[in-house]
Structure formats: C-alpha cells, structure tokens
Design a protein that fits this description.
Length: about 250
C-alpha cells in the first residue's frame, strides 16, 4: 500500500487504509497508511485507531472500548462506531461491514444495511431530530447526488452531511432515500421553510413526506419530497419498504 501510494503522480487525493493483522509473537498489530499534505505517511498504531474524514466521530465512540468485553459487545461497538462516523461525515454512508480478527484468522460478521443501522442506533442521533431532514426522490427520474442537495441548501444553512442512503421499494414504486444533517436547529428550520406543501397522493409513500422542494440547479429540475427525521418515519422505511440496494455518495 505504501509503495502504491508513493507511485501516484497526483497526491492531492484523500486516500488511505488501516491494515490489521495478528502476529504470532506480539498479537494484534495495527498500521495506518495514508496521504497527508501530499506526502505518504505510514504509522504503526494501537487501539483506538481510526482514519478518514469521519475519524473524529469514530474515536469518540471508541473511547468506551473495554478489552474484556465479549465478542458480541465488541462487534456492537464496532457497528456503532462506523455508524456514528458515517452519520456526521459529509459524503459517506451505506452498508456497515465489521471483521473479527484473532490468532486463528479473520471472518466477516453479517453486513448491516443502512436502514437497519439507522433504526437500531436511532438513540445515537435522536437528539439531532430537529437538525435532520429525510428526503425521497422518484427513482424513475435522473438521480441526484449529495452535491446537488448541498448546492441547493447551502445558501440557507450549513450542512454537516448529505447522504443518498438507499434505493427502496414501497408497493410497486421505487424511490431514493436521502438524509441531510444541519449544524444547528435554526439552520434546519430555515432550510425546511424553503419547502412548500404538495397535494400528491401517489405514489402512496409520499403521504409520509408532506412537503416538497424543487432543485432548479438540475436540468431538468427535480422535485424532492421532504419531512423531518423521526423514529416513526425510520420504522416505516425499515419495516414497510424493501431495500433494493445501498447507495454511497463519493
């Protein structure tokens, strides 16, 4: 990895990896390889260890690590850590993947999809309800990106995160599920005030998203349907909608 990153002509990119293994003599080993200030850095580290734009949010969760915890509790902490890091990071999200490494080798634990993670760990971000908007877009039209939403709402408020989370199906209708997280409640309120009520009754999932906003920065323009984050809305998405596949903006 170090040699590969060093071979790149363009080191303006943000790229890196954490490499974990088990040494027969010293036990677990952790290494970070990444690009910083156009230079490739390699470090040998110890837990807690994180890398990437969401690492600050990850490390806050990892402070509760206990080396005597059970494998199940450690896996739960790992999932929570990934969820917390991606929830507040501007462009990441999607499936959560956790691996268990010991002296016998490694195995991947069952993948947790985005809607399951949002529902299971709702309490981690419930205090952000009034800073978070959920949006849906008809999957039959041109998809929109995180940047499209950032460009539209940025004049009104400072966005912490904008994710296209998943492609879902409810009944016979498919839609993209997006999420916006604002830095302050009054900013989220100002953003919501740019929406207007709609009177559409079909597709039926729109009953859960009573307001709309038109993205004029798209050609042609795209109508996005909006509601505040809530446990009930997440449970509807998790329990009543089929997750077709996860989406991750880059």
């Amino acid at each position: 990895m170090y040699e590969y990153l060093n071979s790149l002509d363009d080191k303006d990119i943000v790229c890196g990896a954490i490499i974990v293994g088990w040494d027969a003599n010293s036990g677990p080993e952790f290494h970070r390889v990444f690009i910083k200030n156009k230079k490739v850095v390699k470090q040998r580290g110890s837990m807690p260890l994180a890398l990437g734009s969401g690492q600050g949010h990850a490390l806050r969760m990892l402070q509760s690590i206990d080396y005597n915890m059970s494998t199940d509790d450690a896996a739960d902490l790992a999932f929570k850590t990934l969820f917390n890091a991606t929830y507040y990071d501007k462009h990441s999200g999607g499936e959560l993947k956790v691996y268990h490494i010991n002296e016998s080798g490694w195995k991947q634990l069952p993948v947790m999809n985005a809607l399951e993670a949002y529902t299971r760990y709702y309490d981690l971000h419930s205090r952000f309800e009034r800073k978070t908007l959920f949006l849906v877009v008809d999957a039959g039209i041109q998809p929109i990106s995180a940047n499209d939403l950032i460009e539209h709402f940025q004049p009104h408020a400072n966005l912490l995160a904008s994710h296209r989370v998943a492609l879902c199906k409810f009944g016979g209708d498919c839609f993209y599920f997006h999420r916006l997280v604002f830095e302050f409640e009054d900013e989220a309120k100002r953003a919501y005030e740019t929406t207007t009520p709609h009177v559409r009754t079909t597709p039926s999932y729109l009953e859960r998203f009573p307001d709309q906003v038109v993205l004029d920065n798209k050609n042609p323009s795209v109508t996005v349907y909006v509601n505040w984050s809530s446990r009930g809305l997440l449970e509807f998405l998790h329990d009543e909608c089929q997750l077709l596949y996860k989406m991750v903006d880059s």
